[in-house]
């Protein structure tokens, strides 16, 4: 038990140190713009399909379930209100972050972990180059830029999926559904969902890079580090979502 607690504290300490180094190196010149653009395309653009498909079908399922549940109370007219708030405030940011953590987080850990166990990261240090500056900053920065944009697009796709079910299952018109979504949402709702994604992106990037830089034991060690990244990043997203929701509701 004590050994597990010490390992957990050491892990948190390592994440905190890497976070500080990343923020410090992120403000130092040169800014490596080409590396950032490369990572934005690799981590963000290539995640469009998985994020949009996830929210499309989530919106459709939510609409069907909502129509079924509200029919008993004669409240089907509120489908747009419920879907708008659910997707924009919670489901869009959280599901998009979880999909990105599974796809991108695992990929970052596997890539950096492979470089670590083959001593390419040590070679960077020998050349007086900072692995944090070259490997961590572009990936974390690209995630912070890409994840909010992915989330906004996924929100729209999720609402589109909900609208198609509202039209086909509940007999609502598209204009009626859209009007109820717009009436339910405020700018605070939109900003609350989007602002969460900056924190989710930072957690995913730091956890993935930390596990990659500390991978040991060859291919087996990289595999374990990749699994740890998916689990840790997913838990951090769900736990932090609770606290961020409390904070944004209080603002």
Query: Can you tell me the overall shape?
Result: elongated
Helix-strand makeup class? mainly alpha
What fraction strand?
Answer: under 5%
Rg, rounded, reads 21 Å
* Secondary-structure element string: HHHHHHHHH
Main beta-sheet strand count, sense and barrel state: none
Helical stretch tally: 9
Q: End-to-end distance, in Å? A: 39 Å
Proportion of helical residues: over 70%
**How many strands in all?**
0
Q: Average pLDDT across residues?
A: 91
- Please mark out the parts with pLDDT under 50 across 5 or more consecutive residues, or reply none: none
List descriptors.
251 residues; mainly alpha
Give a description of the structure.
The structure is a single chain. The chain has 251 residues and is mainly α. Helix 2 (33-44) packs parallel to helix 6. Helices cover 86% and strands 0% of the residues. The longest helix is centred in the middle third of the chain and has 39 residues, at 79-117.
Chart the SSEs and their pairings.
Layout lengths: L1 H25 L6 H12 L3 H24 L7 H39 L2 H7 L4 H39 L4 H11 L2 H27 L4 H33 L1
Helix pairs in contact: 1-6, 2-6, 3-4, 3-6, 4-6, 4-7, 4-8, 4-9, 6-8, 8-9
């Amino acid at each position: 038990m004590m050994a597990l607690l010490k390992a957990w504290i050491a892990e948190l300490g390592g994440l905190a140190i890497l976070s500080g180094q990343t923020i410090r190196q992120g403000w130092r010149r040169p800014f490596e713009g080409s590396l950032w653009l490369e990572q934005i395309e690799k981590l963000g653009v290539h995640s469009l399909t998985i994020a949009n498909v996830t929210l499309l079908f989530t919106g459709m399922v939510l609409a069907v379930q909502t129509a079924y549940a509200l029919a008993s109370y004669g409240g089907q007219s509120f489908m747009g209100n419920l879907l708008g708030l659910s997707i924009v405030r919670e489901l869009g940011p959280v599901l998009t972050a979880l999909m990105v953590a599974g796809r991108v987080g695992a990929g970052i850990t596997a890539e950096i972990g492979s470089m670590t166990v083959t001593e390419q990261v040590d070679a960077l240090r020998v050349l007086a180059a900072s692995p944090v500056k070259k490997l961590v900053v572009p990936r974390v920065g690209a995630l912070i830029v890409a994840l909010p944009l992915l989330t906004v697009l996924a929100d729209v796709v999720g609402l589109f999926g909900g609208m198609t079910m509202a039209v086909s299952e509940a007999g609502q018109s598209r204009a009626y559904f859209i009007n109820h979504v717009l009436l339910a949402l405020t700018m605070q709702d939109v900003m609350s969902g989007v602002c969460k994604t900056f924190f989710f992106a930072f957690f995913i990037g730091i956890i993935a890079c930390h596990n990659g830089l500390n991978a040991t034991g060859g291919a087996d060690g990289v595999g374990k580090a990749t699994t740890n990244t998916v689990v840790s990043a997913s838990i951090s997203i769900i736990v932090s979502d609770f606290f961020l929701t409390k904070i944004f509701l209080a603002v």
